[in-house]
Amino acid sequence: EPFSNGKAVDFQFFLGDGQMLQAFENATRGMKTGESKTFQLSFPADYRHTDIAGKSADFILTINQIENVHLQEVTPDWVQSLGVDEISVDGLREHIRRSVKREVDIRLLARHRIAVMNALFSISEFELPQVSVQAEMHRLLEQVRLDLQQRGVQNADKLTIADDVLRSQAEHGVRWSFVVSEMVRTNGLQAQPEQIEAYIARLASVYEKPDEFVQLYLSDKNRVEQATNAVLEQNVIDYVLSKAKVSDKEILFDELMK
């Protein structure tokens, strides 16, 4: 009996990165290009698609192509072929270092965001407008559909997800947006133009032509709104951390990246 979203063609994934269920990865190991096999997979009870959670399915798997990741020897000629501004090995390393630093900052912000969010949720209580919740549920569903389409999943635009699965996440997002708005209003944490400019400049810093990126970003009202919301969130996070007891904790890079 076929089930929704149970088929994909020319789907790419990396073994070992956790993208697929472990049973699926185990079934692919040892297979050769052009080989097909049928195997049974049991979905976890807490699987995100509730219609198949806790059930088993038979998958027919065909391997179209196998590729291996290998490290390129870092030479000046190879660096030049990448088209980066700093045409040297040291320049490339500095470019990568800046990118990694930006990723670290993003991950740290995410951890702080969760900590502040949990703290504010613990001292706030209010009813959520169901219109806002429904709108957020629709947005989340469209986001999942788009992601699956980009992965090559057939009929992703017709994917349905049970309301109870989306509702919890939607309510969480709506609650956070209301709390942020109230914190901004009562504490004067509005986003300043220079803050928005600095935020966009940080995003542009990892691109080859940051000035062009900034101009493109500023010409898109939706992107400017996203930048403004990000600054508002950061203002709230900084404000709460300035009022809280904060202790530093060392964390390994790999642990942070997970």
Number of helices: 9
pLDDT averaged residue by residue: 87
The main β sheet shows up as: 2 strands, antiparallel
What sequence of helices (H) and strands (E) makes up the elements?
A: HEEHHHHHHHH
Radius of gyration from CA coordinates: 23 Å
Structure description:
With 258 residues, the chain is mainly alpha-helical. The protein has helices spanning 22-28, 76-81, 89-122, 130-150, 163-187, 193-204, 210-218, 221-243, 253-257, and strands at 36-42, 56-62. A two-stranded antiparallel sheet has the order 1-2. α3 (89-122) crosses α8 and α5 (163-187) crosses α8 (221-243). The model has no long low-confidence stretch (mean pLDDT 87).
Summarize this, please?
The protein is mostly helical and 258 residues long. It contains 9 helices and 2 strands, in the order H-E-E-H-H-H-H-H-H-H-H. It has helices at 22-28, 76-81, 89-122, 130-150, 163-187, 193-204, 210-218, 221-243, 253-257; strands at 36-42, 56-62.
Q: Which key features would you list for this structure?
A:
two-stranded antiparallel ribbon, 2 strands, single chain, mainly alpha, 258 residues
Strand-helix topology:
Elements: H1 22-28, E1 36-42, E2 56-62, H2 76-81, H3 89-122, H4 130-150, H5 163-187, H6 193-204, H7 210-218, H8 221-243, H9 253-257
Antiparallel strand pairs: 1-2
